[in-house]
Design brief:
The chain contains 11 helices and 23 strands. Strands 12, 15, 18, 19, 22 and 23 form a 6-stranded antiparallel beta sheet that branches. Strands 3-2-1-4-5 form a 5-stranded parallel beta sheet, with helices on both faces. The longest helix is centred in the middle third of the chain and has 20 residues. It starts with a strand and ends in an 8-residue tail after the last strand. The protein is an alpha+beta fold and about 400 residues long. The chain folds into 4 domains: about 90 residues, Rossmann fold (3-Layer(aba) Sandwich), CATH 3.40.50.20; about 60 residues, ATP-grasp fold, A domain (Dna Ligase, domain 1, 2-Layer Sandwich), CATH 3.30.1490.20; about 130 residues, ATP-grasp fold, B domain (D-amino Acid Aminotransferase, Chain A, domain 1, 2-Layer Sandwich), CATH 3.30.470; about 80 residues, Phosphoribosylglycinamide synthetase, C-terminal domain (Glycinamide Ribonucleotide Synthetase, Chain A, domain 4).
Length: about 400
Amino acid sequence: MRALVIGSGAREHALAWKISQSPLLEKLYLYGANDGFSHLGQVVEAKDFEELVKVVKAAKINLVIVGPEEPLVQGVADIFKSEGIACIGVNKYWAQLEGSKIFAKEFMRKNSIKTAKYEIIQDEKALLEIGYPLVLKADGLCAGKGVCIVRDKVEAKAKIKEYLSGKFGEASKIIVAEEFLDGQEISLISLFDGETLLPFVSARDFKKLENADKGPNTGGMGAYCPVVLTEVQSQKLAAFQKQLQEALLKEKADFSGVIYAGLIWAKGDFYVLEFNMRFGDPETQSLMMHLDSDILEIFDFCVKKNLENVDLKWKEGFSGCLTIATKGYPDEFPRNIPIENISDEVQVFYAGVKKTDKGLVSNGGRVLSLCNTGSSTEKNPYAKIYSAADSLEFSEKYYRTDIDIC
């Protein structure tokens, strides 16, 4: 097979790394890869997706894997499909499950999927009847940063004004206000082929910038898998998986790609906080570390509508990931900071980096993902991860110090 991975972050690095291990792979191509993983395949260039289709055809690429959410919302999978090119990526219509919080809420309402009570806000003077604390979410895509918790009416009014005034551009011109649910969160990432929903093991990510889950939301400061669930939670999760598959079939969802359910355990059941329609970052890094099956073969089964015959295999213990960010993230941060002494004791996936005459330097808010898989004798992967983080020479490095299996 000839495969193309679209995207530039640590998530795409992890996917490319896993695909490169497949005996089915003849050649790997990369579109947008950063300098940290561009060596894994042949880098292709195109000014837009129409030109990229021509590149894919000329290279006789069998399969395209789309990493980021924005190309999916823009309809890149539809373009490939119209040209007869197999693609792991949701179509533009179903990308709205991530691209619009309101679309997602309506999907859940129609299919009786449990989610928080909510109101839609388009006016600064809107009356909020849900009660406090409550959660404000920009309707559109904000790279994981468009969510905040407000504790009272004064704080709510200030945030609503900030959002509606364009803090996130068009994405926050409409706001969803939700009741606050308190509990442990998990990420359930699944593949869907139009007929079968194939869930991966559940993962847990850490969205808050600071220890003890404080500070602003980020794209993700770390993750691990699998999450240890009680018997009741396992039963409820299986029931949710069945309900989600039935909902997708009922709605005649016609994509071959990823659906990611961000769930919270509250009131004795799992409630959906959000849907994403692509692999999560940083959950993907830990999932690809933990997966003991051939991901390229699984993708091939997916585009051929044959997921019902896939039996996923997983390694023992746990797999973990820690995000190394630049100080100042998720707001303003410096770039071009040298990065040295990267440990070979852990698997490193690169995000915001580039190579210069002076060596590897930072080029983004999230810079590296340090990952490790615990064995049957040493189940917790984080001892080696934190040792690698501590020894990393990067003067502006920032990372949480409390991420662990929980």
